UniProtKB/TrEMBL annotation:
InterPro entries per record: Aminopeptidase_N-like_N, Aminopeptidase_N-like_N_sf, M1_APN-typ, Peptidase_M1, Peptidase_M1_aminopeptidases
Protein name: Aminopeptidase N-like N-terminal domain-containing protein
Composition bias, Low complexity: 73-85
One GO MF term: peptide binding
Transmembrane annotation, as ranges: 39-62
Amino acid sequence: MGIEDASMRNGRALSDQWADSVVVRPRTTEQHITVHKRLVLGFAVSILTLLIVTAVAVALSVSFERCSAESGGALAANGSGSSSSKWKQSRDANSSHRDPEEDQQPWRLPRLPGTLRPRHYELRLSVQMENFSLSGEVSIEVECVRATRLIVLHADRLELERVLVFSDGKRSAGAMRIQRRFQHQPEQVHVIALHREMKPLRSYKINITFTASTEHELLGFFRSSYLLHGERRFLAVTQFSPTHARKAFPCFDEPIYKATFRVSVKHESCYQALSNMPLEGTTSEEDGWITSHFSRTPRMSTYYLAWAVANFTYREAVTDHGVLIRLYARPDAIESGSGDYALHITKRLLHFYQDYFNLEYSLPKLGKRLL
């Protein structure tokens, strides 16, 4: 019995020790009180801040109404209260008659609004090789698709000097009144707001005179140079793809807007002008310059248009389908035969593509440039 009592006493003691070691002690009352104090303090600070802000706002509104009442009484005492009310009425009337189309601000969109569709461009250019400048006049025949008072077209780094808009392409009726016009450079567009609306299914003509500088960046209408017998010579050519025709003349410079083009280039007699189409003829000017007139192009996008002013010479070939191919290059490159391979491979490639696609080349000639 003594041994069993001792063992039971020892077992009970061990079990009591194990229970004391694994028991989960609850959080004390002091910890609960600390957490609750923090929550109450944060909530009180939030309520106090909201009350202060509300009181400041009410005080400012009361002082503003008091100042307005005092100023209104002063105006009435001076006899100018009626003019103030008239000004408010006129302002409300103007705001109610604002054009919703201008409120939409289509010039801020990445694409043109689509209310007008170009059909033909008459482009007359004058190229100054001495000071690398370009001046010209473009006449754009457009068709109105949806009624609009706004003409939005592309123009980048151009100075638009004069803008005229004629109804139905007839100048005898007089130009339409232009309310205002401005340049929106972020989207590279020029906006013309008319006084009256352009009607759908009618044609209009936009005449713009402009100036630009011939840049040296291989975009738009740019200049370049080369050495010939130790002498520095210059040329000016175009690179309109994909959206750089707007740097050379005002236009609807998106591939979806296709139109025909007729180009005339005025230049010094020591240079020659080139373009997409064959040369129709030249006109001698009074100042000793000449103007080169080119044929009308097929319908195409603006980035397909091209012209150049240089004193290059050329070598030519004719395909089996009768397409004239000319390779223009520096006189020394033509004499040395540097462009013969380019001319030969161009002829073969054009013949291959015509047979492969069973489609005739759409232009009467193909010109290539080689510096």
